[in-house]
Write a structure and sequence with these properties.
The chain has 217 residues and is of the alpha/beta class. Helix content is 38%, strand content 12%. It contains six helices and eight strands. The strands form two sheets. A six-stranded parallel beta sheet has the order 3-2-1-4-5-7, sandwiched between helices. Strands 6-8 form a two-stranded parallel ribbon. Strand 2 (27-30), helix 2 and strand 3 (48-51) form a beta-alpha-beta unit. The radius of gyration is 18 Å and the shape is globular.
Amino acid sequence: MPTLITGAGQVGSYVARALVERGETPVLFDVQPRLDAVGEIVDLHRVKILRGSVLDMTDLIHVIKEESIDHIIHTAAILPTPDAKPHLAIQVNVMGLVNVLEAARALDVRRVVYTSSIVLYYGAYPKHPPTGPITEEAPVDRIPGFFYGTTKIAAEYVGLDYADALGVDFVAPRLGHVWGIWSGAFGAPISILLHMLVEGALSGKKVTIDQPMLVWG
């Protein structure tokens, strides 16, 4: 039975490629997929790409039923761009997961994997600077005014409640800095930085960083 991947961005595309390499034909589900960018990462003939929104329960339920989905990997999100709209970020990043979890509960999907982020640790960093490898027991905290981080914290707690109270198999790996082939839009400045560093190394060009930046992972 195929896996549904919500979000056909960089992370979703690499997840799709990993599943293809395992012999699966994953279903990528995105409101506006960039086929050219996705095709740089995974063979478009080896995946199924469907248009739809995680904010539309009808879309979600339809694709889960029609494609006989038994696992969902939820990567769809509004990224932390400077012009991010708080209301939309909360709708997509929190309510989008709620819809995925509710659809999974109603249709007995075996597992929901939610791609969380190490930004959860950023707010606690000034008081609790890491002295070694960061574990799941490390403190998390919000960064005032940083809606993306807040939505990630909220979404994790929602997922845990669905697991504890309703029995949905939920797991939320906290991804570090993501980099790789990608010609679509970037979100966090650190992603742009990593892209610049790799491009500079490959081309032999000097890369200048204009401001200090905390790098985790």
